[in-house]
Amino acid sequence: MSKLKDKFTGLIQPMRDDIRAFIKEHGDKQVSTVNVKQVYGGMRGVRAMVCDTSNVPPDKGLVVRGIPLKELFDTWPEDIFWLLCTGELPSDDERKDLQDEYKKYAGVPDYVWKVLEAMPKDSHPMCMLDTAILAMEGESKYRARYAEGMKKEDYWEPTMEDCMRILAILPELAAGIYRLRYNKGPRIAPDPNLDWGASYAQMLGLKDPDGIFAKLMRMYLTLHCDHEGGNVSAHACHCIGSALSDPYYAVSGGLNGLAGPLHGLANQECLKWVIEVMDKFGGAPTKEQLEKFAWDTLKAGKVVPGYGHAVLRITDPRFDAFLAFGKKYCADDPVFQTVSNVFDTVPGVLRQIKKIADPWPNVDAGSGALLYKFGLKEFEYYTVLFSVSRAMGMCSQLIVSRAWGEPIERPKSSTTEWLKKFVADNY
């Protein structure tokens, strides 16, 4: 038994007992009210889910299992997945065991590469990633065990096994898609001596003589790992998984949501805006030029991409991490200099517009510039990087949900006619 599985096994019964006792005692108590605006507005702010892996307080940013993200900037992705599942950071021995588990489950099947090679040459890399994961569904240990018949309390075990397989192959799969889709040459085999993030960086094939890009990959994968349960990718994965669909179905579905322009494409939109600014001014603009450009963008009815967040009301701690990394390793890069100057300029502009509740940068405002600096300039691919990281959050949420026996998700919907009559009758 792996150390992660062994650790998680010991947590399950106390978690089940605690949740069942809590529901029994407090199940009828109200935790949220919903108004008509929220019903039509994408359920924004409605408390209707449980997610124990992380939460996002508006005044703090991402908190992973009780630990603020700013305390985890230098934590490796393997540590983060362990933390998401168990609530504790692993020891060196436990991290090594998890890395060995990844290596045991690694290896993208040949039939997957054949599927990808048969797709249209201009396929979006996210479509290629989601398709590849779905193509592997026949390998699901959960589906096989469910067909044989197993107790509900054991659902989490093959779910964890499927999730380990998905996470183990993701760096190789994502890197292979990059090289195939953008004609970068033959696939690069994973190096068994490298960690999860460094192996991904190595398989992309970008020059990294000093190992700085590998450091960026580790941090990138850590920072995007999870963002509570209500974001589109996590929620879609949870909803699909709640029907007891296996993790290949659920993770592929969640990543389909991440591919949407309002979710995972934001970092490339931010970088496009920065490049547009630089093209206009022939290089890194002054703060005065940036201020004018920001006003021109807003007056044209557009937004400044990368600024504002649905939940946060502070500078996203993930942006702080990217900014600090850039100042340490990329201070002379004109694209990064522009990102830094935008941070010094744009919030002051946005604060002058009353309807803007959050004028501060989110994670997407800076990540693309660093990727660009290290030679990863194919904007469409950026969401695949996001996906490799976010799969840790989706998988850990699936494992935990199956462990305590969360039921199928089935909220009640209403017609517009019913809502109008309800308001008329009660107000």
CATH uppermost class of the largest domain: Mainly Alpha
- Report the CATH architecture of the largest domain: Orthogonal Bundle
> How many discrete domains?
2
Q: Give a quick account of the main beta sheet: strands, pairing sense, barrel closure.
A: 3 strands, antiparallel
Category by helix and strand content = mainly alpha
Helical run tally: 19
> Which fold does the CATH topology of the largest domain refer to?
Citrate Synthase, domain 1
Distance between the termini: 60 Å
Instruction: Give the strand order of the largest sheet, numbering strands 1, 2, ... along the chain.
Output: 1-2-3
Please bin the fraction of helical residues.
55-70%
Q: Which regions contain 5 or more consecutive residues with pLDDT less than 50?
A: none
Order of helices and strands: HHEEEHHHHHHHHHHHHHHHHH
- The CATH superfamily of the largest domain is Citrate Synthase, domain 1
Percent strand equals under 5%
- Rg is 22 Å
Gross geometry: globular
Record field, number of beta strands: 3
Mean pLDDT: 94
Structure description:
- The chain has about 425 residues and is mainly alpha-helical.
- It has 2 domains: about 75-265 and about 385-405, Citrate Synthase, domain 1; about 265-375, Orthogonal Bundle (Cytochrome p450-Terp, domain 2), CATH 1.10.230.
- It is built from 19 helices and 3 strands.
- It has helices spanning about 5-25, 35-40, 75-85, 90-105, 110-120, 125-135, 140-150, 155-180, 195-205, 210-225, 230-240, 245-260, 265-280, 285-300, 315-330, 335-350, 365-375, 380-405, 415-425, and strands at about 55, 65, 65-70.
- A 3-stranded antiparallel β-sheet has the order 1-2-3.
- A hairpin with a 7-residue loop joins strand 1 and strand 2.
- Helix 7 (about 140-150) packs antiparallel against helix 8.
- It is globular, with a radius of gyration of 22 Å.
- The mean pLDDT is about 95.
